[in-house]
Design brief:
The protein is mainly beta. The protein is built from no helices and 16 strands. The strands form five sheets. It has a four-stranded antiparallel beta sheet, with no helix packed on it. It has a four-stranded antiparallel beta sheet with strand order 7-8-9-10, with no helix packed on it.
């Protein structure tokens, strides 16, 4: 949304913008809720905002997040340990409530590089594994498809080593039995 965040409680609508709330940016690209009920909003330009129902807290490069070169947040998800995972156009990271960890990624195949820089979506499995969807286009030479991260190792899936029909991942969902579903497809990424 480029007009802030809209909330519907079943009867009434409330719109939060930079003009009437503490949100950092009107261009919100991702939303997640943690186990305490706090809502998290990833923005296109200015960082991350959280709202506990009464108070806004903002996190920007300048005051919170060292090492995040590109702060366009594309995806948010909260895992079973209440860690907030953040996908950006330059990698992904984690906020555990106190400290930030950035997982550096690269635009090309580098030693140790196993996750694409451009994250499109995130999901958490029933086993707390982080699933990462990647951007794909024919001009991009970095890793694409899907990565599964268990906190130690990264496992990658593309159309060359799995049944994926596209390396462009639009969304990921985990059903109640633990099966992981991947929304794929793009004219440039179809195989």
């Amino acid at each position: 949304s480029t007009n802030g965040v809209s909330m519907f409680d079943g009867e009434n609508w409330t719109v939060y913008t930079i003009e009437n709330s503490g949100i950092l940016d009107n261009h919100v690209m991702a939303i997640a809720q943690d186990s305490s009920g706090t809502m998290w909003f990833g923005t296109k330009k200015n960082g991350l905002s959280s709202f506990d129902g009464e108070n806004w807290t903002n996190y920007t490069i300048q005051d919170s997040i060292d090492g995040w070169d590109n702060y366009r947040i594309t995806a948010l998800v909260v895992d079973q340990k209440n860690n907030l995972w953040i996908g950006t156009e330059n990698g992904f990271g984690k906020f555990d409530g106190e400290s930030w960890t950035f997982y550096e990624t690269f635009y090309g195949p580098q030693p140790g590089s196993t996750v694409s820089s451009i994250i499109t979506c995130l999901a958490v499995g029933l086993d707390n594994k982080l699933w990462i969807g990647h951007y794909y286009n024919s001009f991009y030479s970095g890793p694409t498809g899907i990565s599964g991260y268990d906190g130690f190792d990264i496992q990658n899936f593309t159309w060359t080593n799995s049944a994926l029909k596209s390396n462009f991942i639009h969304d990921i969902a985990v059903d109640k039995t633990g099966k992981v579903w991947f929304a794929t497809g793009d004219q440039q990424g179809d195989h």
